[in-house]
Specification:
Layout: H1 2-56, E1 80-86, E2 91-94, E3 110-113, E4 117-123, E5 129-136, H2 137-185, H3 205-253, H4 257-287, E6 292-298, H5 299-313, E7 320-324, E8 331-334, H6 336-353, E9 360-364, E10 370-374, H7 381-386, H8 404-414, E11 418-422, E12 432-437
Parallel strand pairs: 7-9
Antiparallel strand pairs: 1-2, 1-5, 3-4, 4-5, 6-8, 9-10, 10-12, 11-12
Helix pairs in contact: 1-2, 3-4, 4-8, 5-6, 6-8
Length: 442
């Protein structure tokens, strides 16, 4: 918008200046014509009495124009040339640049012109002596060109200078718009504070007020949604755990295979429901914006704790490998709880969806990146993009809620990091890799 405004204003100003200069040249041409014509007439009328007096003081009449020629042939060319002629048209006196042949102008007082000269003829009182002064049109064209250049040449500097001035003024004028845009850009599920409308000009304040009202309504709706999700998940955990315990006791007491099978199906359903409630609780915490912390945290220590916790609950702890580079470190003002949720979801997905015969590798690299790699078939690009969405599980028969990667994506956004999904994994022909990158702000 700013670029279009600057270019448009510069173009319009330039066009107006060119029109003004063009109009000035037209007016200048008319004024030059009046000035030159006035000078031509004044010169001719002043020469008449001088020429008549000079002719009367001569002892004998001139026999040829050459004998009475005046002026010198040395020097610059004259702007005005003249001839003094008698009533028969014979040239009596002429300026040194005037031709020897008589002008084509008729012996009649007033202006007359041909293709080359503008003439003015003045006569004596007895109409026997005529003074004809000529001004070449080339002199007028030269003066007009010089005047036009004097008007056009400054535009070479004025156009860029005006462009710079317009750029500075336009930037200052639209700065409040940029500030308002920047304030609106920062508003998301983690930052829904009201915009200070008093800092903006009067024209932009209604927009800020409208955004604040919208943010207030959205904040209220999100808070209600988060509270409902958190309360629901939290309240469901106790009855689900109780029902699961009772079901497991029932399985231990049942002897008949058919009844035992049904009880085991109920147990599996309750475990899926427990897992879903746990994910909903994590999602509500992620929506609440828990990514950042006031104090720096050593996330490498958190990674060790998460991996150790997984190994303790696994039937085959050797399937989960932690490969840590010697100089790997990741310290910053990040929430340890949020990072633990991220790693738990990524490792859990890798253990569930990866090949059960292949290990899951957790790499902690020197650049602070954490990579979780598991063996799995290669995913198509569209499927790789879709699994980031909530409740999207892809083509798999493994159990899950489809919320893990969306929770990770949300928390990474709050921590100014990013989640990169690769299939196949880096350096392999198959497999799946989830890579998280966080800025090292130590």
């Amino acid at each position: 918008m700013t670029r279009r405004l600057i270019l448009s204003l510069t173009f319009v100003v330039t066009v107006f200046w060119l029109l003004a200069v063009g109009l000035g040249v037209v007016v200048m041409e008319e004024e030059f014509a009046e000035i030159f014509d006035g000078s031509l007439q004044d010169t001719a009328e002043r020469l008449v009495p001088l020429v008549v007096d000079d002719l009367q003081q001569r002892d004998q009449p001139a026999t040829s124009a050459q004998q009475l020629e005046t002026g010198s042939s040395i020097g610059d060319a004259e702007y005005l040339i003249y001839q003094v002629r008698d009533s028969s048209g014979r040239v009596l006196i002429r300026s040194h640049d005037a031709p020897e042949q008589a002008f084509q102008a008729p012996l009649k007082a007033g202006f007359w012109k041909n293709d080359t000269y503008q003439f003015y003829t003045a006569d004596s009182e007895d109409h026997t002596v005529f003074v004809q002064v000529a001004d070449a049109f080339a002199n007028r064209v030269e003066a007009l060109h010089e005047g036009a250049m004097a008007l056009f040449l400054p535009l070479i500097l004025l156009v860029p200078a005006s462009g710079v001035a317009i750029w500075v003024i336009a930037r200052r004028a639209v700065r409040p718009v940029d500030q308002l845009r920047g304030e609106i850009e920062t508003k998301d599920g983690g930052n829904m504070e009201a915009i200070d409308a008093a800092m903006f000009p009067r024209e932009l304040q209604p927009i800020a007020f409208s955004v604040n009202r919208l943010m207030m309504r959205l904040r209220t709706a999100l808070e209600a949604e988060r509270e409902f999700t958190s309360n629901s998940a939290h309240e469901l955990r106790t009855p689900i755990a109780g029902a699961l315990a009772q079901t497991q006791m029932l399985i231990a007491e049942l002897k008949e295979s058919s009844n035992r099978h049904r009880a085991m199906q109920i147990e599996a359903s309750l475990m899926r429901l427990s897992h879903l409630s746990e994910k909903l609780l994590q999602l509500s915490r992620a929506e609440a914006g828990i990514g950042f912390n006031d104090k720096p945290s050593d996330l490498g220590r958190v990674l060790d704790m998460v991996v150790t916790d997984f190994r303790r609950s696994m039937a085959e702890p050797g399937r989960l490998l932690l490969i840590r580079s010697p100089n790997a470190r990741l310290i910053g003002p990040f929430s340890e709880d949020a990072f633990a949720i991220v790693m738990r979801n990524l490792i859990e997905n890798a253990l569930i969806h990866g090949s059960q015969q292949e290990p899951v590798e957790v790499h902690f690299d020197d650049d602070g990146a954490v990579r979780v790699v598991n063996s799995a078939p290669v995913l198509a690009p569209d499927e790789l993009a879709s699994i980031r969405k909530r409740f999207s599980r892809g083509a798999t028969t493994a159990t899950g809620s489809g919320l893990g990667l969306s929770i990770v994506d949300r928390l990474m956004g709050q921590m100014n990091g990013k989640l990169v999904l690769l299939s196949p994994a880096a350096g392999r022909n198959d497999g799946f890799e989830a890579r998280i990158e966080l800025p090292d702000l130590a």
